[in-house]
């Protein structure tokens, strides 16, 4: 999932509040299309060839409030403390950025500091020798590395080396449930896959859909597979696919995952007509908070929408949430999570030594400093820093603490598959996942189709 494509898939969105404070949280909305000019005080637009003139550096990142303001203030703080080595930033909306950054980096004219999503995109940069190896930087700045969530480094690492600084915030996928619906059938939240399957007929008999799902959007279906494969086999099987290992999808755990999800579909585990429901409309969320569905697997960012649109559903304590339950006999650690473990800052390999030095100083002195950590918390987000939960307060603190605990305690935090894989493989993945949920392909056909695009 792309953490900045839309507000629903972006960051934690605790909406419906006029001000921004530690207890009232705003929308970390995302962006799409077009560019914005460099903001006042930014010092001009990014220069060609990887950086600004002199010993300064250039930085391109996404616009969209309030995260845009946090990024701007971070650069301005650095510039104020480092006269003569300023960073000049340029802001882009999401779609324009994706196009512009690839073109610029390919032409050797990208910025010094590259804002990104890690995973498959970062691997492409590494393959083409376009970004700096930061492994030694983190060895020399062990305290910096130690203060960040360890799980955030997975999507920053390629072949055992670190090529990006994990930054900003974390948004895992959450297992939500409607406590009122469970009270109606006298049941408890499921503690295993077997209990999930046992609940399905009970909810159906009560006229309540077991699970809400915006299946037309495809990536919503993907979250189920991400968790199931992890709970069955741990993170290694997907890691093999991500690494381009031939036949990686042929692992028996994949067959088990695909069979289990089709068993759930056949048992009417999802709302009727789920393949025509879009996540963009938030109809899937409405099914949960109106009690038409009992459970939902979705991103942390949906909490704010349910709070804003769901009447007293959140404020009354009727919304339940937990990590995805284990699968009987599975090898995956139940603390593992999936979703968006962080955002990622890389340094262009084409930048001058002086520009690289400026970028590294920015990483080590200003990125995720105490001021930035508080700024993210004030916006209702969880910075990827150990102890960032000290800033949580108010009615939303329990949920924010749950997100913090999930992310900080995860032994593995897998990046969303459609971000981790290269673009061609990701599109094939989403297409085949939709067909899998529609029961129009078998597990073996799914595996065969996915093995064909490994490494693409």
Automatic annotation (TrEMBL):
It holds the Pfam family SBP_bac_1. This is Extracellular solute-binding protein. PROSITE patterns: TAT (PS51318). Residues 1-29 form the signal peptide. The keyword Signal applies. It comes from Microlunatus spumicola. Keywords: Signal. The keyword Ligase does not apply.
């Amino acid at each position: 999932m792309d953490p900045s494509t839309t507000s629903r898939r972006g960051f934690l969105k605790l909406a419906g509040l006029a001000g921004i404070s530690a207890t009232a949280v705003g929308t970390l909305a995302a962006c799409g299309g077009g560019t914005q000019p460099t903001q006042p005080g930014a010092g001009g637009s990014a220069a060609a060839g990887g950086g600004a003139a002199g010993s300064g550096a250039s930085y391109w990142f996404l616009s969209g409030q309030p995260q845009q303001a946090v990024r701007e203030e971070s650069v301005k703080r650095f510039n104020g403390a480092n006269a003569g080595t300023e960073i000049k930033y340029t802001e882009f909306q999401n779609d324009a950025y994706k196009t512009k950054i690839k073109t610029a980096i390919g032409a050797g004219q990208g910025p010094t500091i590259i804002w990104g999503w890690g995973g498959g995109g970062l691997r492409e940069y590494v393959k083409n020798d376009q970004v700096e190896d930061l492994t030694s930087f983190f060895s020399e700045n062990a305290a910096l590395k130690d203060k960040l969530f360890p799980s955030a480094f997975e999507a920053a690492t390629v072949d055992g080396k670190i090529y990006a600084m994990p930054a900003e915030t974390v948004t895992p996928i959450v297992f939500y449930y409607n406590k009122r619906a469970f009270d109606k059938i006298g049941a408890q939240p499921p503690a295993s896959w077997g209990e999930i399957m046992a609940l399905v007929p009970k909810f159906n008999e009560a006229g309540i859909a077991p699970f809400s799902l915006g299946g037309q959007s495809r990536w919503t279906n993907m979250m189920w597979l991400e968790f199931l494969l992890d709970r069955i086999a741990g993170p290694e099987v997907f890691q093999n696919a991500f690494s381009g290992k031939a036949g990686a999808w042929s692992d028996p755990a994949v067959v088990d995952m695909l069979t289990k999800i089709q068993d759930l579909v056949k048992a009417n585990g999802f709302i009727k007509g789920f393949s025509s429901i879009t996540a963009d409309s938030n109809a899937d969320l409405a099914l949960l908070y109106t009690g038409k569905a009992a459970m939902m697997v979705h991103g942390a960012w949906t909490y704010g929408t349910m709070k804003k649109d769901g009447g007293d559903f959140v404020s009354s304590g009727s919304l339940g949430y937990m990590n995805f339950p284990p699968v009987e006999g599975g090898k995956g650690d139940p603390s593992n999570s999936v979703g968006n473990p962080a955002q990622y800052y890389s340094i262009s390999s084409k930048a001058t030594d002086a520009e690289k030095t400026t970028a590294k100083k920015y990483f080590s002195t200003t990125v995720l400093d105490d001021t930035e950590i508080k700024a993210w918390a004030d916006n209702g987000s969880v910075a990827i820093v150990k102890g960032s939960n000290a800033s949580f307060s108010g009615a939303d603190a329990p949920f924010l603490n749950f997100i913090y605990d999930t992310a900080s305690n995860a032994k593995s935090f897998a990046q969303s598959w459609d971000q981790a894989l290269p673009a061609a493989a990701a599109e094939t993945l989403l297409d085949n996942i939709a067909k899998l949920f529609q029961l129009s392909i078998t597990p073996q056909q799914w595996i065969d189709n996915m093995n064909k695009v490994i490494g693409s």
